[in-house]
Design goal:
The chain has 316 residues and is mainly α. It contains 13 helices and four strands. Bound molecules: fe (ii) ion (2 copies).
Length: 316
């Protein structure tokens, strides 16, 4: 990493342990030290699908509106659940699932949904077994860094101001640090996906404004935006309907921000009989209407400003 990320806020675990302070650069040496620190600690591992009600919650998401058509193929759904059954996590990571379920149910449902969507799309788009394994490893934790964002910001019912946007954007770097620490590997697909899932192919994303060229992360990014658009949020009286959400994604793909073939694959799952994604194109005609009172917005990423942000207490 030539230009290391700098943390705007501290990264703390759920128990309040500070892993890195605000202002830390996520250089190779810093990450090496962090992983060295984690190396002395061992955690028991369990299957994610056997933790709490994760399996039942996932099935509920897949079988209800707005996802029942996308996950309507029972054979494909069975394959997905089988793949998900293999995913194991150490207890601190399972605790993060538990935290979201108890304190921020939207994020809990969103994380599980993006997990399922990523695997569904990856099965069509990725042929290489190792890359597919990376997708399975990367998909279930993309927003874990939100434990370092005040719950009040994650659940705010009105548009975020610039300061709140900065706090929210911290979740990408925070997720990278947390997952590198718990998985003991800074290049683990889960850690790099947490860091890069808001980056865009044209460099318009954050936190590093890189031109994203990572198949797995690009798939997560599309699932992430799609779910954000079609899910009901407290600040949005109505969510996007499927047609308008897919139009929005197609516009973003055409502008070069996200991958067109990933979007086309998603479109194919929204069509009757699920045609092959290579045969799917979205009409250039815009027929959908974004919901009234829509506050879907890009966010302004944070920049480290010591005097300005020291009093913030993310995670509270
Ligand atoms: Fe995110
Ligand atoms: Fe997300």
């Amino acid at each position: 990493m030539n230009n290391p990320l700098q943390l705007c806020y501290p990264v703390k675990t759920l128990t309040g342990r500070e892993l890195l302070p605000a202002g830390a650069y996520l250089s190779r040496d810093t990450m090496k030290e962090l992983i060295h620190l984690a190396g002395r600690e061992t955690y028991p591992a369990r299957k994610l699908m056997e933790f709490a009600a994760v399996a039942a919650d996932l099935q509920c998401i897949c079988n209800k509106q707005p996802y029942c058509r996308i996950f309507s193929d029972p054979v494909r759904q069975k394959e997905l659940l089988k793949t998900m059954q293999q995913v194991e996590f150490t207890q601190p990571l399972l605790d993060i699932y538990g935290f979201f379920k108890a304190c921020d149910p939207y994020t809990y449902r969103h994380i599980l949904t993006v997990f399922a969507l990523t695997l569904l799309l990856a099965q069509d788009l990725i042929n290489d077994r190792e890359e597919l394994a990376r997708a399975v490893a990367a998909a279930p934790t993309h927003d874990f860094g939100k434990i370092c964002v005040p719950v009040a910001v994650c659940k705010k019912t009105t548009p975020l101001n610039l300061r709140e946007q900065a706090l929210l954007s911290h979740h990408a770097a925070a997720g990278y640090v947390l997952l590198s620490f718990y998985l003991k590997e800074a290049e683990h697909p889960a850690a790099t996906t947490a860091r890069d899932h808001h980056e865009r192919r044209d460099g318009s994303g954050y936190p590093r404004q890189i031109t994203l060229r990572n198949r797995v992360v690009e798939i997560v990014a599309v699932g992430d935006v799609f779910d954000a658009l079609i899910s009901s949020r407290p600040y949005r009286p109505q969510s996007y309907d499927l047609r308008t959400a897919l139009e929005e994604l197609s516009l973003q793909a055409r502008s070069g921000a996200i991958s067109e073939d990933v979007v086309n694959t998603l479109i194919s799952y929204n069509r009757e009989n699920h045609p092959c994604h290579t045969a799917c194109r979205f009409s250039h005609e815009l027929r959908g209407t974004p919901p009234p009172g829509n506050h879907y917005q890009g966010i302004t990423p944070c920049r480290y400003e010591p005097a300005d942000i020291q009093e913030e207490k993310p995670g509270v």
